[in-house]
Amino acid sequence: MKDICCLGHITKDKIITPRKTVYMSGGTSFYFSYAFNSLPHRVPFRLVTKLGEEDMDAVRLMRGAGIDVEVRRSRHTVYFENKYGDNQNERTQRVLEKADPFTVEDVSGLDAGIYHLGSLLADDFSPEVVEYLSQRGSISIDAQGYLRDVRGHDVHAVDWEDKLRILALTDIIKVNEHEMQVITGLSDARGAALRLAGWGVKEVVVTLGSEGSLIYADGCFHEIPAYAPREIVDATGCGDTYSAGYLYCRALGAGYSEAGRFAAAMCTLKLEHNGPFDRTAAEAEALVRGERRG
């Protein structure tokens, strides 16, 4: 069994829709941590985050839920503004404030089997930070933040600077179909996975929405089905929920396919409600077995 340390900024999010404006906490590390905490506490887990003093309420709530959180101080908290029109698939995103990036000093002394880097913006984790952590444990990366560059307040999609240097140190990476194409230049999931593996990644996880997911590891592909939700309520944090379920199972020694199916089932359950994953491992396992009730 390996213990897991998630590193990433908690955000404060402003969600604007034609009907209302809502303020809430978010970010990769936020959704990942709540999902992980909903599972049986068989894998030791810690979140290391970085935010401004004025936003510590989010941390207090997480600790109250039983999540082990360490805080590194920042001048600001990452502040996202997401504005939706009548078409919910069309979003304008701005970053009103940025938190300080993680430094080697921030992660010095951490001890874990797996470090999951929940990047939100391109400069969150420098190559030096990844290199330091790779000498202490396995590296898992959610790639989305490495593809976001902030200019002024506007978010621009970019290729991943220093990707070859960082990917050579990466044991597990999760990308969606858009991210894999930006990083590899390939639109075919199998081809993209092979290219990422060629750059040094040991386990490549490609999530494909309703088409399921694809895992490439040890020279083999594993096709993971998607489980149909009863209804789609909120997709925010689904990728982070997948990562939590996958790493949880892998830390316990599960194989790639088993871990992928469990993670996919967690995503389906997450889709059916607002906010972070709050269901149980038993419900996810029942969904995998096709024994869902109620």
Biggest sheet features: 9 strands, mixed
Low-pLDDT sequence parts: none
Q: Roughly how many Å apart are the termini?
A: 34 Å
User: How big is the Rg?
Assistant: 18 Å
Can you list the strand order of the major beta sheet?
5-4-1-8-9-12-13-14-15
Give the overall shape: globular
Please outline what is shown here.
By secondary structure, this protein is of the alpha/beta class. The protein has ten helices and 15 strands. The protein has helices at residues 28-37, 57-64, 104-107, 127-134, 163-167, 177-184, 189-198, 238-251, 256-271, 281-289, and strands at 4-7, 11-16, 21-26, 45-51, 69-73, 78-84, 91-97, 114-118, 138-142, 148-151, 154-157, 172-176, 203-207, 213-217, 220-224.
Structure, explained:
The chain has 294 residues and is an alpha/beta fold. Helices cover 31% and strands 27% of the residues. It is built from ten helices and 15 strands. It has helices spanning 28-37, 57-64, 104-107, 127-134, 163-167, 177-184, 189-198, 238-251, 256-271, 281-289, and strands spanning 4-7, 11-16, 21-26, 45-51, 69-73, 78-84, 91-97, 114-118, 138-142, 148-151, 154-157, 172-176, 203-207, 213-217, 220-224. The chain has a nine-stranded mixed beta sheet, sandwiched between helices. Strands 3-2-6-7 form a four-stranded mixed beta sheet. A hairpin with a 6-residue loop joins strand 6 and strand 7 (91-97). It is globular, with a radius of gyration of 18 Å. It starts with a strand and ends in a 5-residue tail after the last helix. The model has no long low-confidence stretch (mean pLDDT 93). Belongs to the carbohydrate kinase PfkB family. This is PfkB family carbohydrate kinase. Residues 143-275 form the Carbohydrate kinase PfkB domain. GO terms for molecular function: kinase activity. Keywords: Kinase, Transferase.
